[in-house]
Amino acid sequence: MSCLFNSFDPYFKQPFGAVRAGQSVHLTLCIPEELGYVDPHLVLTKDREDPVHYRMDFDGQTPGVNHFVFQLAPTTSGLYFYHFDLYTA
Asked: What is the pLDDT of residues 55-71, one digit of tens each?
């Protein structure tokens, strides 16, 4: 696998595009083992608010790749931005 995350690929992000408040969003990261131990966090920032960190859950392994997932449902409408922080030991 050549990328950690691709928002256009439904494997990594479902559903595609904007969602309603309360609708669940499922995100997946694929982290190559060669990066060493990684503790990924989803960082979600609502427009003009402080970022919130969510620790992602380990979801198994394929040869050479660790999979992490997180599911959330924003409770209020608005513009949200997200990125991932990868912490290594």
From this structure: 999 999 999 999 999 99
